[in-house]
Amino acid sequence: MSKKALAFSLAFALTGFAAAQAATPPAAKPTVVLVHGAFADSSSWDGVVADLRRDGYPVVSAANPLRGAANDAAAVRTVINSIPGPVVLVGHSYGGTVISAAADGAANVKALVYVAAFAPEVGESTFDLTGKFPGSTLPAALDKPVDLPGGVHDLYIQQDKFPAQFAADVPLAKAQLMAIAQRPLTDAAGGEKAVSAAWKTIPSWWVWGGGDRNIPPAAMAWMADRAHAKQVVTVPGASHVVMISHPHAVSALIETAAKAQ
Prior knowledge:
This protein has twelve helices and nine strands. By secondary structure, the protein is α/β, with parallel strands linked by helices. The chain has a single domain, classed as Rossmann fold, CATH 3.40.50.1820. It starts with a helix and ends with a helix. Mean pLDDT is about 90; it is low at about 5-25.
């Protein structure tokens, strides 16, 4: 074959390869489902959502009822079941307890991301893990419980203590608004024992702040080690709401989990 013919054949082959590549659509990105924790709401993910949407990820900020661990997991599971493709499930604080149950047996959940969160073992509760290591100042910051029917109580953080306790690295004016808008957790939800632990079978990624006053960093490090976390990110000095004060660090870890095979 002449040099001219060889060059023509090579150019034709490369053109055909490029056309085939262009005709093959990129794999769809997994949907990221974000689950907020106690004393917060779905807006706590706004900064993370902005990053994920910019990078082309479908996102759902699920409403967490905060009424009971099994009840809340069932509510989140309905969201997971409505999504046809793969899911990266992300939980903050008590939301970690919820995703640990909601993901159990969910074939489309490919990764769990714990953001300053709990990951109870079967038979453990959120409150058990709160007190497992010294350092949490949350109990002293709670307001007088609000009575509910059936002997259950709603728990709130005292509004004047909320900024320092929950969101110390968030601008004060914003933290004060968060204190007013906080959604309560029932004491029954915090004390309910886990009946499943999806982190045993689904890979997990973890991020938390070094200045967390709700969950001692030592407790989160212990839980992440127990779950054989794929990656751990600690944001020095960050508060319990690391996803608000450092959304880029959180979204970057979520995307890492989403890209993992």
